[in-house]
Amino acid sequence: MATLLTDTLKSRYAALQAERERTWPTAQLAANARQRAALVARFDPAAVVQPGDILPPRNFVEVDGGVLSLDGLTVDGPALLIFFRFAGCPACNIALPYYAETLHPALKARGIPLVALSPQQPDRLYDIKARHDLPFAVATDADNGFARSLGIAFEPDERPSPPPSGWIGEVTGTGHWELPQPAVLLIEPGRKVEWLRVSPDWLDRPEAEEILGWIDAGRL
User: Which helix (H) or strand (E) is 120 found in, with range?
Assistant: First the structure.
């Protein structure tokens, strides 16, 4: 059944959670909920970059082979960066197509470029852009360095040693457990932070209307 464009992101995540409750083992379901709750409890808004902060120059390799820079993205005005986990992340495979449908057209009309960033290596990250025919740039935050500098990186609480086959570092190609918490960053010319919204619970990300409201409120 085709997904209606009027669906909210919240409703799409509710459907994902309902499917997991039907199919996942109880222990796996509990571990997932426990990790998300722990990240929410630990999140400190004062520990991430703040409005007005100036970021250092940084480049990102696109999955198509190009190179993006913070200065290039903001040469004509603000740019919006969306941080996600990796190409195979189920929650990210819901969020990015949703933003392609609902957020990208409105940003394009406002002249604001949209870029999705993950620490996953470009050749592995290409899959999510191709699968959903995403109309915006998808690029690699090498070794999660940018996310770490913003204060949004985290490592799962449960990290078996030695790591099992198919662990996060193997999937992303980084060789470590670290991932970005999903986040939306609006950056102005001069690499100035306008605002940052972090989603410690990766099943609770902002709707397109919320993001556009934050953008337009700052432009009044």
Answer: none
For the chain, the maximum distance between any two Cα atoms, rounded to a whole number of angstroms, is 53
pLDDT digits 0-9 by tens, 161-170? 999 999 999 9
Q: Which residue has the tokens 């990796």?
A: 86
Q: Let me know: does 191 contact 70? Beta carbons within 8 Å.
A: yes
DSSP structure string for 44-78: -GGGS--TTPBPPP-EEEETTS-EEEHHHHTTTS-
Q: How far apart are CA 134 and CA 63, in angstroms?
A: 12
Q: Which two tokens stand for residue 51?
A: 């409005």
Exposure string of 5-34, with b = 16+ CB inside 10 Å and e = fewer, is eeeebeebbeeebeeeeeeeeeeeeeeeee
What's the Cα-to-Cα distance from 106 to each of 27, 71, 207, rounded to whole Å? 41, 22, 13
Q: Which uninterrupted H or E stretch holds 2?
A: none
**Could you tell me whether strands 67-69 and 59-62 are parallel, antiparallel, or unpaired per DSSP bridges?**
antiparallel
* Structural contact between residues 187 and 81, judged by C-beta atoms closer than 8 angstroms: yes
Q: What is the pTM of this model?
A: 0.94
Task: Write out pLDDT tens, residues 92-124.
Answer: 999 999 999 999 999 999 999 999 999 999 999
> What region, left, alpha or beta, does residue 95 occupy, with left being phi > 0 and alpha being psi -120 to 50 degrees?
alpha
Fold of 9-219: Glutaredoxin (3.40.30)
